[in-house]
Amino acid sequence: MVMFTFVVCIILAPLIWRILSSYWSYFTTRDLPPGPFPLPVLGNLHLIGSNAHVTLAKLSLSHGDLMTIYFGSERVVVVSSSELAREVLVRQSYVFGGRPLNLPYVAILFSHGGKNIAFRENMCPRWKKQRKIFHAAVKMFGSGLLPLHVQVCDVVKDLVTDLEVHVGTPRDIAHDLFLCVANIICAMTFGSKYERGDPEFSILMKNFDVVQRFVAPGNLIDVIPLLRQLPLKRVTELRSAVGLLDTIVSRKYHEHSSNVDEIRDFTDALKKQYEHDMEGEENDVIRGKNDDIILTSEEIMLIITDMFFAGIETSTSSVLWGVYYLAFYPDLQDEVYDEMTRVLDPDTPPNFSDRHRLPFLSATITEVFRCGSIVPLLLPHRTITDASIKGFRIPKDTTVLVNAFAIHNDTRIWADPHAFRPARFLDENGNFTSPPPFAFYPFSAGKRVCVGEILGKMIVFVTLARLFYNYRLTIVDSGDLGANEANAASIRKPKPFQVVLEKRH
């Protein structure tokens, strides 16, 4: 009995300590942004629900654009306005440039303990070096973006061809779009593509889904880290999923040789840059004055992991929302098609370079990014020193979330924000106009902006443009547009839906 009591005390002591320290912090820290009162252990988790971005947006209406929320015992400041997002992401980017000390468990596994670009701590020299190598590799492989664009077009051509056999039949094309985007990223990154029915592709899809279930804020294994040590089925599944995805990237990376005369893909370029860096070549674009930092092969592979997995999920979701909105509004879809046929050569399908000649299509895709808010809560930041915003004090090591969904639906910025209206990005002459400054965050902003922004925009533009150039899509059982969001994790997706395809020409 004594031993049992001792074991229970050992198990409960850390939890009790977290509760007491959390409440001590709550009652003694002055000038924090307002927020709902936290419960023991749960904090404000009972208020959050499955779609955290929606709940946090509603809570901000009561507590303000700068709001304190507790995910368990962890204090989080939530930013819900364009003005304050600019302050955090741009004006005070260094102060808010850290990543949380207690990363979500899935991020710890995915980033090998915070060694990748996305989750690397505090914009440190190694983080800067990873970004430099990434950009240098893109420049080496995709000079002028033409080689990358050619690969995008080749894979989208396969999608258009594959869909032809399904004309006239209701179909959920989410799988087709995932295969398309995955093959675009694979072609860019590894110089190879998956065939439909490939066992490895099925493994990819299955394990993507597993990982996605763990990336929403407030997961119990993040709130109660002790759960990570228990033999829970879900935790075991997560470790297995991340391990399998790592294995695929590692195998493909090691199949590439750095001793090639021709750069065939991004991995070739990345390995070339890595070898140049190891050799200390003076003319290497990634080496600056007094730059003696040499990355490990693990850190190089994590650049690929960032591009591969983050690129597939975000780009697929963006394309899927684009298909959903335009299938829901066939008149807008017809207007997109009419613009392409009016402006483009009839024998030449749309290319990324045509975007400046297609203002309505560009406006439509911009509206997809706004309404879709694919990453509704941008990757979490952390204050590396005490900070001050709008008269409130944000202590050092506080996690900060920017609610892009709330900003993209802010009535102070957008008229009728819940309506899908591409015309909001057109002037009176029909020319494309950019979104208001710092009110649009599909790729974040500032020093932590997504390194793959231009690649993501290219994938989404070419895929949607060529899909609607070849097919007219009609949604089946459209229902209510506003009720079609699936339970979100870190990436928003529409619930499964079916479309009927009609060939345009």
Describe this structure in words.
- It is a single chain.
- This protein has 505 residues and is an alpha+beta fold.
- Helices cover 49% and strands 7% of the residues.
- The protein is built from 17 helices and eight strands.
- It has helices spanning 2-28, 45-48, 52-63, 82-91, 105-110, 125-141, 146-163, 174-190, 199-212, 220-223, 233-255, 266-279, 297-328, 330-343, 359-372, 404-408, 453-470, and strands at 66-71, 74-79, 381-382, 387-389, 392-394, 399-402, 471-476, 498-503.
- The strands form three sheets. It has a four-stranded mixed β-sheet with strand order 1-2-6-3. It has a two-stranded antiparallel sheet with strand order 4-5. Strands 7-8 form a two-stranded antiparallel ribbon.
- A hairpin with a 2-residue loop joins strand 1 (66-71) and strand 2.
- Helix 8 packs antiparallel against helix 13 (297-328), helix 11 crosses helix 13 and helix 13 (297-328) packs across helix 15.
- The longest helix is centred in the middle third of the chain and has 32 residues, at 297-328.
- 45% of the residues are buried.
- Residues 282-287 have low confidence and may be disordered.
